[in-house]
Amino acid sequence: MPLHDHFRAPLLKHHHWESFHATWTTSIARQLNKKPLPEGFLAEPQAAVGVTIEVDVATFERDSEGEESGPTVSTAAWAPPKAAVSAPVDLAGVDVFEVKVYDEDRARTLVAAVELVSPANKDRASHRRAFVAKCAAYLQESVSVIIVDVVTTRRHHLYRELADFLDLNQAAREAVPGSLYAAALRTVRPRRRKMRLEVWPARLALGAALPTLPLWLGPDLALPLDLEASYEFACDSLSIPA
Fold first, then answer.
1. Structural domain range at position 199
2. What is the DSSP letter of 195?
3. Which of 2, 56, 125, 231 has its CA 20 to 30 A from that of 17?
4. pTM for the predicted model, two decimal places
5. d(CA 138, CA 85)
6. What domain count does the chain have?
């Protein structure tokens, strides 16, 4: 399924991008829950439309009912490619302003988030700062993040703004090319060494297929997130032709 422009005519005349983004997040969650996620993990789609629009997929680790908490490794091993970037990062000074609410009965812990960028995330400096701060806060808590930006009507590059926010080196700033892109990010802390940010970038293009990226659930546990499959399912659900 080739990547469409959901933000301009002719597609925008018949299919609102907000509806597509919401459907795509549901498709990603469905894909993860049906097959790749091991027992004890749950993906939930979340969408909020208001002054700003935030669409993402959150992946939680949960205890099996009546069982003690412990590492879950009962899934087929998948070895992701080596990170294209590994750069030192200092997250100690990042301010985090948020309220976390946990379901104590299920002992949920956030381990990964997939962020679908919206035009509102990019349309003004305050919205861009909010998006970047949220991603930085996730990374500070060792929550892996996948950013997917298919917005064609705003040119701001949120990954680069995140790299600036984290004061990364020049190579890391330029690791994600193009105005349309997807990038998987995670933080690692080698023994007795400074925390590092690892990045798996992918350039996107209208008319081309989408990539598969590693979704990290833990230091040694990653799953393949097939963006092409979830995108095709979302398009089919809304009768968007190839």
1. 11-63+80-237
2. -
3. 125
4. 0.83
5. 19
6. 1
